[in-house]
Amino acid sequence: MANSNTYSIAKKIKNYFRNNSIIEKKLGIPPDYQAKALKSKNFLQSNWHRNKLLILEKVISKGKDKILLDLGTGSGNLELHFHDKVGKIIGVDYNDEALLYLQSTLTKEKIRNIDLIQADIRKLKKVNTIPKADYITMIDVIEHLYEKDVRKLVRELSNYLKKGGKVIIITPNYHSIWPFIERFLERLNLVPRFTNAQHLSKMDRRFLNKLFSENGFRCNNFTTFNTISFLAPSRKISGFLCSMEYLLKFPYGNLILAVYSNSKSN
Predict the structure, then answer these.
(1) In what order do the strands lie in the sheet with 114-118?
(2) What end-to-end distance do the CA atoms of the chain give, in Å?
(3) Which of 139-152 are b and which e, b meaning 16 or more Cβ less than 10 Å from the residue's Cβ?
(4) Rounded to an integer, what distance in angstroms lies between the CA atom of residue 133 and that of residue 61?
(5) What is the dihedral of CA 168, 140, 34, 46, to 10 degrees?
(6) Which of 110, 158, 190, 238 makes an SS bond possible with 232, Cβ 3.0 to 4.6 Å?
(7) Rounded CA gap, 117 and 127, in Å?
(8) CA atoms of 243 and 115, how far apart (whole Å)
(9) Phi/psi of residue 99, nearest 5 degrees
(10) CATH code of the region 3-261
(11) Beta strands in 146-239 (DSSP E)
(12) 40, exposed or middle or buried, with CB in 10 Å at 0-12, 13-18, 19+?
């Protein structure tokens, strides 16, 4: 983007600033990484990411009265997919370049019901303009935090939820074959480095349910997916298999879907 255009785009992002200390920049991860992965000609990669959106459609109710708070937007696959299904989306991320990429896309597509905020989700209390939401989503996010930061974040989530609101998490399942896949992909240099660089916490069913229960949440839905569904060359077959994985609630799939609600929210 030209400098003048970059400036006009940046002005639309609340709290925007250049952040050169983040791990994504140090590892050379481009700001449009997730967007490109979704559209990749490599069907394994595109299925992996498209199936996340398919699963989210099963747990996010449509409605123009719905507010969705997305913590860790990345390049905005969720925002671009759900903007016409809910009334408002607030996207929060600390990656200024990813937010610039997404805001540029929103401006180009004339999408006006998405507000972007640059902030570290470990320090949400410093952002005083976040409305209470019907849904809080964290897609491929909490594994990037140290466990102490995950615990702190979960303790604070009720502050941003309406009564009966839900927290939706998608994260790698470390009670599956995912750790072996992770090491294999790293060894072949097919993905940016995960171990001890991006993936700082290892999530599984027992840890998540215990953590959310301790903080007044109840589990509404827990399943796994992308067990084998992402392996199908056909997008249609991959989607069908993913839906079956969702229904069967097989506990050892590669990705966890967890939905928690807190009736004490107001």
Answers:
(1) 114-118, 86-93, 63-71, 133-139, 161-172, 255-261, 218-225
(2) 42
(3) bbbbbbbeeebbee
(4) 13
(5) -80
(6) 238
(7) 9
(8) 31
(9) -65, -40
(10) 3.40.50.150
(11) 161-172, 218-225
(12) middle
Residue 262's pLDDT is: 85
Q: Where are the domains of the chain?
A: 3-261
d(CA 52, CA 242): 9
- The helix (run of H) or strand (run of E) holding residue 130 is none
Phi-psi region at 239: left, alpha or beta (left = phi > 0; alpha = psi -120 to 50): alpha
Task: Centre a 10 Å sphere on the Cβ of residue 4 and count the other Cβ atoms it contains.
Answer: 8
Roughly what angle, to the nearest 10 degrees, separates helices 3-10 and 96-108? 90
Please answer whether residues 97 and 1 qualify as being in contact, where contact means their C-beta atoms are separated by less than 8 angstroms.
Answer: no
Taking the C-alpha atoms of residue 182 and residue 200, their distance in angstroms, rounded to an integer, is 13
pLDDT tens over the chain, length 266 residues = 446 688 899 999 999 999 988 888 887 889 999 999 999 999 999 999 999 999 999 999 999 999 999 999 999 999 999 999 999 999 999 999 999 999 999 999 999 999 999 999 999 988 888 999 999 999 999 999 999 999 999 999 999 999 999 999 999 999 999 888 877 776 656 556 555 556 789 999 999 999 999 999 999 999 999 999 999 999 999 999 999 999 999 999 999 999 999 866 55
Q: Tokens representing 130?
A: 């976040």
User: Under DSSP, is residue 101 helix (H, G, I), strand (E, B) or coil?
Assistant: helix
